[in-house]
Amino acid sequence: MKRLLFATVALFFSVISYAQIEGKWKTIDDETGKAKSIVEIYKKADGKYYGKVVQLLIKPEYATCISCKDDRKNKPILGLEIIRGLSKDDSEFDGGTITDPKNGKTYKCSITRSGDKLNVRGYIGFSLIGRTQTWTKAD
């Protein structure tokens, strides 16, 4: 009986942690296929999820987000908050935005987790028009 209870509790916590996106994630460059940065996703007091660049794995073309149009304009890419305001909706995180520091454009964002991978979708308008990047769990 104790084994069954332990197995049930372990399964419950593994399912809960499976849907979480908090932690450090390695981003992959679409063009080269190489890892380009580490983004840390965290939850703020408002209950929403945010992500910032905590490590650069390749030297970016620019050290600052010169093309950003909001409060991130001319801010260093290292430490830049690129994900803002995601809310958890079942196993998906959406309702927020993601900014591409390379071109300064901000897109609507949704994230789903599949094991040690995140499917990060940026889009304009509705989700069908956009692109998805797969980020991997960073050690």
From TrEMBL:
<feature type="signal peptide">
    <location>
        <begin position="1"/>
        <end position="19"/>
    </location>
</feature>
<dbReference type="InterPro" id="IPR019223">
    <property type="entry name" value="DUF2147"/>
</dbReference>
<protein>
    <submittedName>
        <fullName>Uncharacterized conserved protein, DUF2147 family</fullName>
    </submittedName>
</protein>
<keyword id="KW-0732">Signal</keyword>
<feature type="domain" description="DUF2147">
    <location>
        <begin position="23"/>
        <end position="137"/>
    </location>
</feature>
<dbReference type="Pfam" id="PF09917">
    <property type="entry name" value="DUF2147"/>
</dbReference>
